[in-house]
Amino acid sequence: MPPEKPAAPEMTVDMGIDKLAREVTKSLALESRPKIAVVDLLGPNDNHTQLGSFISDKLIRKLFMSGRFEKVLERKLLRDLLVQQRIELEGYFDQDTVESIVGKIGVDAIVMGFITDYGSRVDVNVRLIDTRGEILGVGEAQIAKDQGVKNMLQGLKKATLTVAVNPSDAEASVTVGENVVKSIDGIAIFSDLAQGKRSIIITAKGYEMVQESIYLNDDRSITIPLTPRTVTLSLRIDPPQAEILFDGENKGKASQGVMVLKNVPSGKHTILARAEKHLPEAREIELYENKAISIELTAGPRIKIAKLKRGEPGFSIDISADSSAKEEALHAAFRRTIEQAVGAQITSETTPENAGVLKDKIYAYAEGFVKKWEILSERTDNQLLVLKVRASVREGRLNKALFLNGIDVQKVYEWVGNPRIVVIVEEYIDGQPSQINIAQAELEEIFRSRNITVLSSGQIEKIKKRDVRLLIEHPDHARILGNRLGAEIVVAGKCLSNFSRKVQISNFTQYFYSAYLQVQAYNTSTGEILLSSHYKNDKKADLSALGKFDAAMNAIKNCIGSAKSDIVFKIVGNWYDSFNKPETYQLFVEGITYENLQGLNRQLYALNNCRDLVVRGFEKNLAELDFKYEGTKSHLVNDLLNLKMPLTIVRETQNRIFVRFRR
C-alpha cells in the first residue's frame, strides 16, 4: 500500500465522480466539443476492478450530461470498435499509446485513469488526452473507503487466458503470476485470472525462455512462438569419405572424417551416413546441448537383385545376398521397389536434373513408402541367402513426397480435388497499366495445363485494381472474393516490367526489359496463406526485342516461366496439406458375412489413402469399422464404390458412411 498522502476532504463515491467530471470539463475551451471515449480505470497493482468499471460507467453518464462533448462512447461500443479495427490492448492506454489509437476509433480524446488505495480512502486520478498525446484536462478525488467501496475494490474482474505455444509438441511450462500450467498439445488454459496487466513466462526444453506482457480485459487467446536454442554437433566418421544427410539434407562428405554442424536447433534429429561398399547407418538423436558423436560404418555384403516384376498386389523381387545380410538384402529390395514405382509415376520431362533429390529424399527412406511386405520363399546355399519377396507401395505417400520435393506427378492434382482457382493480376509496363495482361494469362495457363479448373477472366473483369491491392494485403478480402466467385483458391499478384537498357545495332534498336512478379495465394475457406513470394527474371535469359512492348512481354514470360514450378508446387502442396489430413470415418456395413468382411478389410487396407483400419464390432451380419483415411469423404465414397465388392451407399452423415453388401 502506498504511503499516506496529506489528508484531504473525503467524499462519497458519487460525490467523487461529480468532482472528477467537473474538473475534467472545466479546462476545455468554451467552443470545444470533442468526441471522447472513457476506458475502465486501473486499480491497485494494475488490476481491473469492479470499482474501476463502476466509476467509468458513472463518469460516462456525467460527462454526457454536461453537454460539453459532441459524443461519449459507451465502454461496450468502445470495445467493439477496438475489435473491428483489430486493435489489441497489449498494454493499457497511456499517454504514449493514446495518440496512435484514438484516431482509428473515431474519437478526439480518451479519458483514462487509475485508483490508488491509501487504506482509509482511495484516490482517483483521471486525465483527458487528445490525439497528439496532450493532456486537455485532469481530475482528482479522494473517496472514503466505506464497505461498498471496499467490496468493489476487492472485487477483481476475472477472465480466461488461453496460451497456445508454437510448436505444439514442445514440453512447455507456462507461468502467469503465481499460476503455473504444463501445456497439453501446445495449449495452456488459465481460468479466473484477475483482469489487468499480466506477465507470461514460458520455459521449454530446448527453447529460449519467453517473457511477454499483455493486458487482460476479457477472455483472450494468444499464440506465442518459441525460438529453439542452437547447439553444435561434431561428427567423427569412419570411413572418412562417408557422406552425411542431416534431417534429410545432404551435408556432403566429411573432411578427413570430421564434420562440425553449427547452429543446430535443439530437439530431435536424424542422421544418415553412407559410403560406397559400406552399409548405411541411420540414427535418431536428441540435442539439447553441444554434442560429439562417432559413426563407424560396416563394410557391406554382396547383394544382387536377380529379378523384379510388377504384378498384383505388388512387386515381386528375387534377391541374393551373404547369409548374414538378410536385413540389408530386404533394404535393397525395398529401395529397388521404390525406384521402379518412381519410374512409373514420372516422365523424362518431369524428372529433375539433379538426381540427388531422389537419392536423398526418397530412396534413402524407401521403407517408409512400403505399405506391407512378405517373404514368399527363403533358402540358403553355400553361405548365400536367396529370397523371394513381395512388397506393395504406398503410392499416395510416395507421390506426395515426390511432388513436395519438386517432381511433377500428375496424379497429385487428381488427389487434391482439382480445386477451382481464380487468378487476378495487375500488370504495369514502365509504370503504366498494361492493356494486354499477359502475366495473368501465363499464370492461368500454368494451372490449366495441369487440369486444374481456372475460373474464366470474364467472371472477374469487373474487379477493380484497388481490389487486387486489397487481396495482396488482406486475406479476409481474398476469402470474401473467393466465396463470391466459387473459388477454393485465390491467386493475387502484381507484375511490373520496366525498361533496362537499349543497344543500337546498325539501323535497329534492341530494347532490354526486366520483370518482377509478386504473388499471394489464399485458401478461401480458412484464409490460410498458401504462397507469398517474389520472383525476378532469369539473369541468363535474353530479354530483348526490337520493340519496347515485345521486350516487356518477353521479360514477363521469362519471369513467370522460371517461377511456375515453384508457384504450382507451393500452392498445390500447401493446399493438399491444408485439407487432406487423415480423418477417421465410421463405416457400417450391413448384410455381410464374416468371410466377406475379411475380404473387404484386405481391399480397404490396400487403398492408397488408408492409414488405419479397426473392426469395432460384428454381429448379425452388421460390421462396424473405424477407418482412418487421408482424403475427402467424397474420395472415400468413390474408393468404396470402386472396390471389387458389391457395395451400395445407403446414406452418409458427417463422419459416418452406411453401406449395404449386395449378395
Written description of the protein model:
The protein is α+β, with helices and mostly antiparallel strands. The protein has six domains: 13-154, Rossmann fold (3-Layer(aba) Sandwich), CATH 3.40.50.10610; 158-225, Sandwich (Immunoglobulin-like), CATH 2.60.40.1120; 230-296, Immunoglobulins (Immunoglobulin-like, Sandwich), CATH 2.60.40.10; 303-407, Dodecin subunit-like (2-Layer Sandwich); 416-572, TolB, N-terminal domain (Rossmann fold), CATH 3.40.50.10070; 582-661, 2-Layer Sandwich (Alpha-Beta Plaits), CATH 3.30.70.60. The chain is built from 15 helices and 34 strands. The strands form eight sheets. Strands 24, 25, 26, 27, 28 and 29 form a six-stranded mixed sheet that branches. It has a five-stranded mixed sheet with strand order 2-1-3-4-5. A five-stranded mixed sheet has the order 31-32-30-34-33, with helices on one face.
